[in-house]
Amino acid sequence: MQNATQYKLFSKRKLLPWTVGILIFIAMLVTVEYIVGWTAVFAQWKTMPLSTLIPALILFAASYLLRAWRIYDLCQPDLKGRFISVLKLSVLHLYANNMLPMRLGEGLFPILMKRYFAVGFAEGFARLIWLRVLDLIIAGALVAVTFSYFFPLFSLLAVGLGTLFMLLLYALYRTKGRQWLIQHSFYPKIEPMINQLKNTAPQSRRQFIRVIIWTFLSWGCKLASLIMITRALQSLSVFEALAGVLGAELSSILPIHGVAGSGSFEAAFMAGLAPIGLLSTDILGLAVNLHLFILGATSLFALLCFWIPVAKPTREDISI
């Protein structure tokens, strides 16, 4: 069995990401205080009615349940009958993703898959890749729809060119690319991961459609929740709020961000609104408060799920 210290979140090789993440976090605290003021930021919550906050929190919780069900469905039949354990894994993984700097939280998914279900690290990592591919499919579609509302001609051109580019890549792969890849000297090194991706992919068209639906519904619940919070704190239209929220959500794929996603979330939220001319100190305060809602909700869910008992696999069950 591999040395457990190799996977510690505070190992020496992760010192640089933690250092950069903490520096970004401190810079974010100072910047918000200088531009907006933390007193003014927190004051916005006085206008938040419980009639908005509670439904938003319920929708946010529903998105977490749907994400867990997506993992459960994608990993059938291996995890059949263990949804509660999958829910704990999913919530703790999302919590780590939201809290740890520089994408370190992603590493918790294969670790917990091994700890809870005796799934090897390579298989756990491959399943994580498929989850991220599903997220990118839905996120890309939502971005296209949102910006087509503000820039219809540009969005239509971008979608057309993007589709053409993907079709050309697929045609190239089918004709010469696959053979070139197999014959290349580095193929033996990546072949095990390619095989893992094949083995962990949706095994039927019906399963693929199901996990796409779960992904869409989970994104829908989360975006609806964040739009409710955004509009309660600031007078924005639904599509304006959606543009900012989508920008912030897409920041999660960036490799560089501070502790608890500080800095990149706020910058991406403002970047989503910049093309439609919505930039101000109030928008920065709004982005910070939206981020605080996410961190508060994910911390609450992680605390609740932390106490869920999970039967540990035996030593004989564990595979590398």
From TrEMBL:
Gene Ontology CC: plasma membrane
Membrane topology, as annotated, equals: Multi-pass membrane protein
| Chief location bin | membrane
Q: Where in the cell is it found?
A: Cell membrane
Superkingdom of this protein's organism: Bacteria
Q: Which InterPro entries match?
A: L-PG_synthase/AglD
Q: Could you list this entry's UniProt keywords, alphabetically sorted.
A: Cell membrane, Membrane, Transmembrane, Transmembrane helix
Membrane-traversing stretches:
15-36, 48-67, 133-150, 156-173, 208-229, 292-310
List the PANTHER family: UPF0104 MEMBRANE PROTEIN MJ1595 (PTHR39087)
Provide the protein name. Answer: Uncharacterized membrane protein YbhN, UPF0104 family
